[in-house]
Each structure stands twice: as structure tokens, then as C-alpha cells.
Amino acid sequence: MATLAPAPDAVVAHDPLDVSRAALYRDHLWEEPFRRLRAEAPIYRCEDSTFGPYWSVSTYKPIVHVESLPELYSSSWEYGGITLADPVDQASEFIMPMFIAMDRPKHTDQRRTVAPAFTPSEMTRLSESMRARTSALLDELPIGQHFDWVDRVSVELTTQMLAILFDFPWEDRRKLPYWSDWAGNIELVHNEETRKQRLEILFEMGSYFQTLWNARAHAAPAPDLISMMIHSEAMSGMSQNEFMGNLVLLIVGGNDTTRNTMSGLVYGLDKFPDERAKLEADPGLIANTASEAIRWQTPLAHMRRTATADADLFGHPIAKGDKLALWYISGNRDESVFADADRFKVDRDNARRHLAFGYGIHRCVGARLAELQITILLAEMAKRRMRVNVLEEPQRVAACFVNGYTAMPVEITRY
């Protein structure tokens, strides 16, 4: 992620239960305040944060409840969008609508346009090349030498996948994680200089993709995402801002989420060696381990909703216009749903109940693809009897939206 902006929590936080503070994620200190919230105030009004007042929704049941009422708790960009960061100036801020930040019916129409890229038949079509690319990358890794797992494996594998989905020029594929890092870093809004720099970089992204759009506008339909948008009734007439917004959604959704789970699973297995031993002894646990890695890591810490009317949320008075942070990262550690929730358990019997993909109409459209990429990575590592040992605490993203890693020094051994 882009790290040019100073952490906003350099300003003293007055509320110890303000879990939007970037340092909690940078320093991996978020578990305890969320544990307190779940035990003492699972629906909590935080009055003092760098993002303004907001409601923290930190347990499983109320998160699902809010997600189940999209008309009452809106994700639309018109009310503030899907993150705690509000536009600096609603009248003049550059707005990029995207279908995850839209309400029905427009959300439905645009989501339906890109959904065919993630069907079971498409996963079958992509799996062979995905496995080949994963195998080739793992075979190039040094054994017994230190290297950065984040850059060498997690970023590269997800970047390759994104390039294929967009039919993006292969030689320029590393532009995709660069744009994703800037687009997904909501902390940049706290600094006017980096906020403007972010807009410049997003315009650069938009210009590049506009060239691709123009080149394919008169070509025959193809299975890449740009072609799907061009040849659809719902998205062919998008404004430039809306086009850029949907690009940001698909790039961040396809990059930050999977890549940080690919890093998180290595960290989790290293942190719980007895669980790693179970997996090494029984490759039949691979698919479940992929779901558990997604739950345990929760690569997007929260999604925001905004109340469109006064409401009662399990006894708490929500006013029209209030923003609610649905903390998936905490819901996935809810002890009433996931026993021993802080533990990475490769044989957890309900790992697939996780909320990391969201719930309801906004559930991640690329969930199958994410699961497939992680499952294939684990399977190919198992074929090679590859054990990844984390050599020191990883460097983490300083942000309350993307819960991820910027570097993780590792060494590979065989078992």
C-alpha cells in the first residue's frame, strides 16, 4: 500500500474503542479493542475519530442484519460510499461511482454485467493456467534463502490474475498493484497533498484504461472484463468517473484481498505450527484451510453503510445519515460463532461462514476466484512439501480498510 501519508493517529486518540485508528492495524494491535467491543458494546457509537462520528458494529449477528437491509442501510456513494472516509468536500470532490457503492436497481444491473467472469465454468476454464502459473512461480523460489513473500509471491500471483481478467498488457502488469495501493488507501484523505497525488495517479490509471477501452470498442465480444463492460447495456454508456470507479473496485477487489490472504495464510500457519502440521499430514484439509485463511486474515477490515432513515438496531437509536462501520475483521472473530476464534484452525468446521466476502446483495462477486487462487497456491505448496517460515514480524498496512502486509521476510524449507 502507499505509505506516503503519516498515520492519522499521530493525533492523540481520545476514545480507546475507536477502532478506525491506523496504528492498530500497522502495529497489529486491533484484536484487544475489538474483543472489548464484542464483550461490552457490540454496537457502539464512537464520537471522536479522524473520520468523524460513526457506529461500530462488531459482532456477527448485527453485521448480517445490517447487510440484509440494503435499502435502510445504504452503500451508495451518494450517501458516503463503502468506507469510513467521507469525501473532503461533497460539492467539489472527485467522485468515482462503482457498483459496490450503488443501491438497487443500478447495482444489480452493473454487477450482473461482470458476474459471468466469475461463474463456476469460468473458474474451470481459468484453473489450468492458474495452476501452471503458480507452479512456475513456486519452482523459481529459492530454498533456504531469505526473500519477501509479499512481493515475490502474493503480489505477483494476484497481479498476473488481474492482468488476465482485464486482458491487460503483460509487461505493464505491475501498474495494477501500484494503482490498487493508491486507490485503496483511505488514510490519504487526511493529508491534502497525498489526497491530490492520489487523484493524479487515479487519472493516470483512467487514461491508461481508456486507451484499452477505445481499442476494444469495435472489437468482437471477449471474456475479459473491459469487453464485458463495453458490450453491456448497463455499463457501455458509463461516464469516465463511473468507469474509473468500477476499475478501482475490480482492481482493489481482485488485488488487495487475495494477495493479503496469500500472505496471511503463511503468517497464520507459521504462528500455529501444530495446525500447520495437521495440514502437512492431510492435504485433504487444503480447501478448508483456504476458507479459514480468508476468515482469519479478513483482508478488508470494514465496509461502511449509511442509514437512510431513523432506525432501531438491537436497541440502539440509529439516526438518518449516521454511518455504520461493519467490522468484518471483528465479526470473523466473534466467539459465539467461531470457537477459539483467534486461532488459525485448518480443520475448523464452520470456516466457510466467515464474513470476509460480505453478506447479502453486496457479497464479493469474485469470491470463487479468490478461493480458487488460494486453494491452488496451498495445493502446489503441498506438492512440493514446501514449508514457509516467517523470519520476523511482517510490515503491515497502516489503514483501517485494507488489512494487509507490505513485506514479510521468509525462508522456505522442505518437510
Automatic annotation (TrEMBL):
<dbReference type="InterPro" id="IPR002397">
    <property type="entry name" value="Cyt_P450_B"/>
</dbReference>
<dbReference type="GO" id="GO:0004497">
    <property type="term" value="F:monooxygenase activity"/>
</dbReference>
<comment type="similarity">
    <text>Belongs to the cytochrome P450 family.</text>
</comment>
<dbReference type="InterPro" id="IPR036396">
    <property type="entry name" value="Cyt_P450_sf"/>
</dbReference>
<keyword id="KW-0503">Monooxygenase</keyword>
<keyword id="KW-0560">Oxidoreductase</keyword>
<protein>
    <submittedName>
        <fullName>Cytochrome P450</fullName>
    </submittedName>
</protein>
<keyword id="KW-0349">Heme</keyword>
<dbReference type="InterPro" id="IPR001128">
    <property type="entry name" value="Cyt_P450"/>
</dbReference>
<dbReference type="GO" id="GO:0005506">
    <property type="term" value="F:iron ion binding"/>
</dbReference>
<keyword id="KW-0408">Iron</keyword>
<dbReference type="GO" id="GO:0020037">
    <property type="term" value="F:heme binding"/>
</dbReference>
<dbReference type="GO" id="GO:0016705">
    <property type="term" value="F:oxidoreductase activity, acting on paired donors, with incorporation or reduction of molecular oxygen"/>
</dbReference>
<keyword id="KW-0479">Metal-binding</keyword>
<dbReference type="Pfam" id="PF00067">
    <property type="entry name" value="p450"/>
</dbReference>
<dbReference type="InterPro" id="IPR017972">
    <property type="entry name" value="Cyt_P450_CS"/>
</dbReference>
